[in-house]
């Protein structure tokens, strides 16, 4: 990987770390479904403005359906899941569970995409499960039920991210490629379309929502424009440059930023169980993403 790749990973981690903070601000006021929809909607609008400003021709080259579907998998469902989790879990907790994306990538790649799992990666999967169990058992939440359901919502989201990473490689990169800005734009069309009916239903039936809240709208716009539109351009470019599994390692860098933003802005606390479980997850993710030995790489290429 080049220095520019590491720089983009770090910047992406800082931005996506802030997204968990923004969700903690918006979800209690606007609700999970509304927050998720507004995020993808402003992501769609932000990408449209970027494409117009750059005078980028919007050509999908026969891949619109792929981009549309990827958006539902990579944005629509995960954003709803994280907004649901934000009702109960502190920002740092969701971010650490988000860091299991490479673990999910290894499992899903092995199960559905003919990816090989070494002994160390199997150990990583087991360690990751132990770490998640500790986090969801000794975490800071109102009840054990909230921890479990919040944790499960995050794991559904990471599974979607893992699947979309491999599908992006199959449907986009292995089929001649596509401008990452166009992939991101098409994906937000898919996510917005998926969530629009749910948004119409919840926004028209829930009369308790107070929409005139400037701070909440600022967080929503930041979620859509910065954490979605700009971030996904970088993310899809990374998948094209360094592959899906390495791109997923950005989730390993997100938790420190999420914990920092949550502590500074919302004064969120963390427990000893959370720290211990997070360290186990960190070791598990490192076992997944560490550089392969040269001999292993040669053997993989020959097989």
Automatic annotation (TrEMBL):
It holds the Pfam family EamA. The chain crosses the membrane at residues 9-27, 33-54, 66-89, 95-115, 122-141, 147-168, 180-201, 216-235, 247-264, 270-289. InterPro entries: AA-Vitamin_Transporters (IPR050638), EamA_dom (IPR000620), EmrE-like (IPR037185). One of its GO terms (cellular component) is membrane. The keyword Transmembrane helix applies. Keywords: Membrane, Transmembrane, Transmembrane helix. It is found in: Membrane. It comes from the Bacteria. This is Permease of the drug/metabolite transporter (DMT) superfamily. It comes from Vibrio xiamenensis. The lineage of its organism: Bacteria, Pseudomonadati, Pseudomonadota, Gammaproteobacteria, Vibrionales.
């Amino acid at each position: 990987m080049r220095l520019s790749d590491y720089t983009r990973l770090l910047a992406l981690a800082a931005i996506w770390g802030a997204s968990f903070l923004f969700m903690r601000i918006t979800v209690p006021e606007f609700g999970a479904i509304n927050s998720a929809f507004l995020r993808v909607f402003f992501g769609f609008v932000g990408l449209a403005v970027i494409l117009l400003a750059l005078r980028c021709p919007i050509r999908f080259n026969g891949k619109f359906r792929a981009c549309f579907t990827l958006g539902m998998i990579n944005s629509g469902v995960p954003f709803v899941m994280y907004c649901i989790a934000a009702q109960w879990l502190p920002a740092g907790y969701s971010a650490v569970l988000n860091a299991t994306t490479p673990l999910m990538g290894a499992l899903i790649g092995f199960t559905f995409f003919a990816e090989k799992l070494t002994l160390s990666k199997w150990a990583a999967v087991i360690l990751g499960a132990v770490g998640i169990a500790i986090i969801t058992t000794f975490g800071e939440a109102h009840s054990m039920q909230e921890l479990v359901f919040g944790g499960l919502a995050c794991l559904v989201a990471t599974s979607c991210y893992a699947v979309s990473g491999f599908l992006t490689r199959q449907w986009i990169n292995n089929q001649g490629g596509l401008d990452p800005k166009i992939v991101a734009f098409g994906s937000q069309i898919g996510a917005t379309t998926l969530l629009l009916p749910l948004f119409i239903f919840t926004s028209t039936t829930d009369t308790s929502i107070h929409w005139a809240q400037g701070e909440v709208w600022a967080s929503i716009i930041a979620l859509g424009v910065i954490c979605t539109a700009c971030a996904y351009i970088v993310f899809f470019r990374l998948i094209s440059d360094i592959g899906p599994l390495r791109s997923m390692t950005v989730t390993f860098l997100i938790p420190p930023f999420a914990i920092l933003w949550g502590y500074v802005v919302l004064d969120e606390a963390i427990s000893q169980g959370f720290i211990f479980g997070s360290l186990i997850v960190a070791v598990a993710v490192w076992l997944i993403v560490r550089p392969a030995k040269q001999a292993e790489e040669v053997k993989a290429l020959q097989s």
